Automatic annotation (TrEMBL):
Superkingdom of source: Eukaryota
Protein's recorded name: Inosine/uridine-preferring nucleoside hydrolase domain-containing protein
All copies of domain Inosine/uridine-preferring nucleoside hydrolase, residue ranges: 34-103
Assigned protein family: Belongs to the IUNH family.
PANTHER family linked to this entry: INOSINE-URIDINE PREFERRING NUCLEOSIDE HYDROLASE FAMILY PROTEIN, NUCLEOSIDE HYDROLASE 3-RELATED
Molecular function terms, GO-annotated: hydrolase activity, hydrolyzing N-glycosyl compounds
InterPro entries for this protein: Inosine/uridine_hydrolase_dom (IPR001910), Ribo_hydro-like (IPR036452)
Organism field: Castanea mollissima (Chinese chestnut)
One Pfam family from the record: IU_nuc_hydro
Length: 160
């Protein structure tokens, strides 16, 4: 009987040491802080929506920056991002608009390399009938600006 009591006591002591020891090695995990840099094209909308739907204790979107290029106009792009954030109830996220340049992998900053120069250089020499300039409606700027009308019609608006 005494042996059984000692064995049970030893099991309880080891269990307590295990529980206390396990708690000593746990670390409070902070959420991954995310800065989303986007050119505001369709894939980036889905990426932003995906991030906003994640558990905020695991992923925290801190800011969204917009890199203007041949695909997006800064004015419409920033409004589209604001509307998505408003729709998702995340007006607390900062939004910034960058320049027309880009950054290479080695950190070199390119000055204003928007998509207009390649269109001008392209001229009429493109092989076949596939020309980017033919995809832009006459009198319009960028093809993505057609999202402006869709945004005004379907996304909830907030006064800014």
């Amino acid at each position: 009987m005494r042996m059984l009591l000692q064995r049970n006591f030893l099991v309880v002591v080891l269990w307590i040491i295990g529980v206390v020891g396990a708690n000593l090695y746990t670390v409070d995990c902070l959420p991954h802080r995310i800065l989303l840099d986007t050119d505001v094209d369709t894939d980036d909308f889905f990426a932003l929506l995906y991030l906003l739907k994640q558990n905020r204790s695991e992923f925290e979107v801190e800011a969204v920056t917009i890199s203007v290029n041949a695909w997006a106009d800064a004015g419409h792009a920033v409004n589209q991002i604001y509307d998505i954030l408003y729709m998702m109830g995340r007006d607390d996220i900062a939004v910034g608009v960058g320049g027309d340049g880009g950054i290479l992998e080695d950190g070199t900053i390119l000055p204003n390399v928007g998509g207009y120069l390649p269109i001008i250089e392209q001229g009429n020499t493109t092989v076949g009938y596939c020309r980017y300039r033919q995809a832009i409606p006459v009198g319009r700027r960028l093809h993505i600006d057609s999202n402006y009308g869709i945004r005004k019609a379907f996304l909830p608006q907030k006064f800014r």
